[in-house]
Amino acid sequence: QVQLVESGGGSVQAGGSLRLSCVASGYSYSRPCMGWFREAPGKEREFVSVIVTRGTTGYADSVKGRFTISQDIAKNTLYLQMNSLKPDDTAVYYCAAGGARLCRNAGVYNYWGQGTQVTVAS
Hints:
Strands 2, 4, 5, 6, 9, 10 and 11 form a 7-stranded mixed beta sheet that branches. The chain has strands spanning 3-7, 10-13, 18-25, 33-39, 46-52, 57-59, 67-72, 77-82, 91-99, 111-112, 116-121. 0% of the residues lie in helices and 52% in strands.
């Protein structure tokens, strides 16, 4: 049974930083994509960042240059380093695994974490 558990969320002032972690237990990495999505109140879940097993990464335009995704397969952990945070980054952040293609699309992922709240004050 695959389980994804996020941590690292919290409240910060604009311009601050947070690092999210997602520990994946029972996951075989048989599909190449893991990603981060976020959902703000009243908005649909949106793509934030993706990493492919071979190391290729991708970012939403809104976070490019500020967020960095990384992965430590030996520790079964996915990370999202978030710098220069803005109030518009406020959302619940979700870790996703099991995507094979079109990995910016939330619908392709088989497994999701429970989410971690990120709140950025102006």
